[in-house]
Amino acid sequence: MSQNFRLNTGGLINRDKPIEFKFNGKKYIGYEGDTLASALLANGIHLIGRSFKYHRPRGFFGAGVDEPNAKMQVEINGCSEPNINATEIELVNGLSATSQNCWPSVNFDIGAINNFLNRFFPAGFYYKTFMWPKSFWYRVYEPFIRKAAGLGIASLEKDKERYEHKYEYCDLLVTGSGPAGLASAYAAANNGAKVILAEDKPRYGGTLLTDDVTIDNLSGKDWSEKIISELKEMPNVIVKNRSQVFGYYDHNMMVMFERTGDHLEKKTKYTPRQRLWYIRAKEVLLSTGSIERPIVFGNNDTPGVFLSAAAKEYMKVYGVLIGKKPIIFTNNDSGYETAIEFKKNGVDPIVLDTRDDQNSELINEAKDLDIKIKFSYAVIVAHGYKKVKSATIGKLNKDKIDFENTEQIDCDSICVSGFWTPTVHLASQSGNKLKFNDSIDAFVPDKSKQNEHSLGAANGTFTLQDTLKNSFNTGSEVSKNITKKDEKIQIPNTNERKYSTHDKFWCSPLPKGKNYKRFVDFQNDVAVSDIEVALREGYRSIEHVKRYTTLGMATDQGRTSNLNGLQLVANVEKKIVPQVGHTTFRPPFTPVTIGTIVGREVGKEYMPTRKTPMHHWHEKNNAVWVDAGAWKRPRYYKRGNENLFEASKREAKNVREHVGVCDVTTLGKIDIKGPDAAEFLNRVYTNAWLKLPVGKARYGVMLREDGIVMDDGTTTRISENHYHMTTTTAQAANVLSHLEYYLQIVWPELNVNVVSTTEQWAGAAIAGPKSRDLLARIFPKIDVSNEALPFMGYVEGDLFGVKARIFRISFSGELAYEINVESDFGLFMWEKIIEIGEEFNIQPYGTEALSTLRIEMGHVAGPELDGRTIPYDVSLEGLVSKKKDFIGKRSLAKEAFNKANRQKIVGLVPLDRKSSIPEGSHLVENKNAKLPNPKLGHVSSSCWSVENNNPFSLAILKDGKNMIGKKLFAVSPLKNTSIEVEVMSSHYVDHEGKRVRS
Amino acid sequence: MLNIKCPYCGDRSQKEFAYGGDGTITRPKLNQEISDEEWDNFVYLRKSPRGKHIELWHHIAGCRQWFKVERDTTTHEIFKTFKPEEEF
Prior knowledge:
A: Ubiquitin-like (UB roll); 7-stranded mixed beta sheet; 24 helices; B: mainly beta; 4-stranded antiparallel beta sheet; two-stranded antiparallel ribbon
């Protein structure tokens, strides 16, 4: 097979296990342990995508999270996902990847015309071009931009994978298993601390896998394996690979993304694909390492240009050559490590070092290996369109702002090293204000805001010896404070080569008359010239430059571009980088799938479903459900081909004529006990409560302190110091919190306890002229006559052996009772009512009929108590006591609440007695008036009055008191209706309220 | 997500709590004669300090107790949590 760029030996891949995969429809072979990127490179594939704006050919640049280009559409097991980083995804059998942002193919992409038109695509192009004409935005510009821009394609299929969330608590979270992470985790674990060590990659060890060092005479790889296996044995340590800590939130809440299933060939039904960890850590040690910084030069985005450390990693970890004729372009010693690795693998590199002639252990080693080195040299421009073919290089003059001479040399790859940038994202997210470290030209963490420490390269420490020393010490110190144990650990001996100082050279100058594109940010196609344009146009703040040019945005969050961008701004502005400052680092550090964030909370697990004890009966009797908060309530019971309108009319009519039964379990119920309960209710409700006798219920209205109605309901005095309060279904939780607030904070001297009993009681309302007859049959031992059990009366009874509470209360306006039994007996009660009610023509009724009944009676509910109405507005002013004080009373004295033309609830009937008025319609005097047409009020609730057989609505109307008899228009621009209506009393049926008292 | 120490239950995640506003507000006494301005101050006006703030929280998915928290509004650092009857 091909794999022409695979070395014969070496690497950490499993050569015994070949893996077949597809790229752009063609089959290739890689090995177990490969990433998609390393497998493609082994096959000599470099052209993998097109750039975002100019559609320039792009290839691999990094080997991990540093990769800005290699975003692919990847399909595994029939699931397609866009924007997968090819350098991070592990190769599995059957994986199929395609290039993004190109059409018809990555080799021939029509969008590449943008590259030749690039002078028409300057920074801020979109802002400048698509502003006018305004009407073009939706129809022309946006669809065009959407089609032209963007990366992959989101799947429209339902995600079949399983995602999980997990919560964990630990003493120390260590992020990254390089030398700093291993040493600190090991020291802390030995002190008995509970440690979580998280590694983003599949393999532990970080740079120890690729650096030529020894620790206690072991290779870096062997030492890391030894430490990891010891840590894994310890019961107080969790070691996780394929786990990226991507977010640092308040109080050391860390969020981690674990790829649990992506690398598995076979998963069981219950293997999650990915898992989100919420980790609360007492201390966080950030050992996130560093990312190599590019040097900017002409056409530096050509496929075949790599970070030098990535080239080394491909050789050492994957046994892959990224090229056979490489140029190493470096301003520091790191490039030499790559050069030496190439040489050891039989490839002759040329090293261009921007520095003057240098001596160091590494440089001397390279010289001894006969590696060709050119000092004071830089790459000016890469040649080749879809792959580097040659490069123009030049000898830098003394100031390094021009070239003394230039020459063109053949090459197939260019490896750049512009020194190292500490990965400070998590530290910055934690609130750590970064400081600029001049000796490494980069920002490093400063003072911690939370309990965190950065270690090793993440803190700007680039030698192994110092890293290990600091990390062992910090791990030991931090854990000692938690566990009070102090196990001394011998800091190991290390052997590493000393670096000579790097050069601050970061961007090759343009030779006179040349206009090469020099990219700072590959992912967003931001070139040096774009940033210069932004600065010329007056953008000064780095945050503005970022947004105008898109520098450092999108999935790679400027991991390779940030510092060079800042350097450029500083140069143009004649400032230094710390004066320019840096943009804000925000989570997530790397992209996280939406599925992981959502976890198991999808479909019916999105929120809990609350079911009443009678749920299954409703289900069996063709209930059509409606959501009331988390509750499922029957909206109506479908018979035959009935629709909502027909069924609810039938059910409501049956209540008015015979008797109906409604499941009212969902009403909020609060048990109130204590010697001061009456006094408390008297303060909570607007009406008087001190004299309510035992065995009586009373309707009450409660306000917020601002005078607005909060909720209404009935409360019953069960015994001397015991009350049973009901609330509306929607406000149940708020009312309980409200009561608790006043009892615990405002009036702690009141001796009262409140507790929710909503779930403890099942409730059935029986309503209609036959309800008393029915009640008498259910409770044959109780006197249910009007005298013995009058309106607002309460008795306790025995429902065929079950203790029951009977309230004579009515929402429907009919003679009605509410029976409560303990929830376990709810279904029993319901079935008994249905069984006995048969002879009285009983029918169950749902919320739709319930609404009809209450609307035509003028009883207010949620739509009227909408957080904007005071008691007067909903005609409950009669319940407002003038004698006593209560919550919100003082607000009712405010001027606006007492205006003569204050809004008030009214009833509406369409003049044609036929047209239903849409809820939410606005009431206006003249439907043809010039806009804005003065609004007089709005329609809050609408129904079909079963009593009068025509539509009826409730409305909140300005000066409603004096509008009775007037004719108005109810207009609904949403439904495109305009209905002439007559204003009348809100009590459409039984004005005097005789029925409830009959 | 904050980590809040309920004075009754101990350290718990913010998820379990509901924020209850300024903890230094005292409700006027019942039946107290009070000007419109004073009442409006009580109902509507709240300081939004940068820095230390004493606020109410409600352990709504726990013991259902209201309590006070001294928190820095810029850093979210929590200095102290205490029962309503405890003097600050």
